[in-house]
Specification:
This protein is of the alpha+beta class and about 230 residues long. Helix content is about 25%, strand content about 25%. It has 6 helices and 9 strands, in the order E-E-E-E-E-E-H-E-E-E-H-H-H-H-H. The protein has a 5-stranded antiparallel β-sheet, with no helix packed on it. A 4-stranded mixed β-sheet has the order 1-3-8-7, with no helix packed on it. The relative contact order is 0.13.
């Protein structure tokens, strides 16, 4: 449904994904030529994201610019300016005011929208994610906190009720052997020689077997030429 927004008119995010709502459209006879303020409730669903997008369909093509978004986060889901074209609110004319959340409007924010050009619309869209399984949550945490998850580590974390704090405290406890990134890296990437050899020693040639060079490499053909000349 395409409607004409009036000052502080309230528009809700769509109730289901894939059902966009148009707030303002330049195709309307009375489309505003200056900034217009609308009121949009914040998103409280932990699995939902509501985005405000400027949409422009011209010559069969589609151009979209993110304007603002709301999702359940540490800030309470209040509307925030999206990165991109409208990020610089001083030049774009966009303003998101959540300083005084209006309880009667379902915890809403006032969004001042810049004027539209020909063929442009402001659209609210909803996106949802499926609920993650316990195994998926454990694997995601272990990928962030360790060098990688294993089946055993996932099962252990899940069986403990996904208690991340207890897992961190166990890792930092006295019973856990100490390990370091450098030790882990060198054992797997640059192991020690099994025989005596001094890297970069005086007199070592660039074509000697097992020689190492940090900033350059001689191809086999060049080494063959060096051996032929000597």
């Amino acid at each position: 449904v395409v409607v004409d927004a009036q000052t502080t008119t309230t528009y809700n995010c769509p109730t289901s994904a894939g059902d966009p709502h148009t707030l303002l459209s330049s195709a309307l006879p009375n489309a505003p030529s200056s900034t217009t303020t609308v009121r949009i409730p914040i998103v409280t669903d932990a699995n939902a994201l509501c985005t405000l997008v400027r949409h422009n369909a011209t010559s069969g093509g589609m151009q979209r610019a993110p304007v603002a978004r709301s999702y359940s986060n540490a800030r309470g889901g209040v509307w925030e300016v999206s990165a991109g074209l409208f990020a610089n609110t001083a030049s774009s004319g966009l303003n998101v005011d959540c300083s005084s959340v209006i309880a009667s409007e379902g915890n809403a924010c006032d969004v001042t929208l810049p004027p539209l050009g020909d063929g442009e619309q402001y659209i609210l869209e909803r996106f949802e994610r499926s609920t993650l399984s316990s195994d998926a949550k454990a694997a995601r945490f272990l990928e962030q906190a360790t060098f990688g998850s294993t089946r055993d580590s996932i099962d252990t974390l899940v069986s403990g009720g996904l208690d991340y704090q207890a897992w961190v405290e166990e890792q930092m406890g006295d019973g856990m052997p100490t390990s370091g990134l450098r030790e882990f890296y060198r054992k797997r990437v640059n192991p020690k020689y099994e025989f005596p050899y001094v890297v970069g020693a005086v007199g070592s040639g660039p074509c000697e077997i097992f020689s190492r060079w940090r900033t350059m490499r001689l191809p086999p053909a060049t080494c063959s030429q060096i051996r032929t000349r000597t």
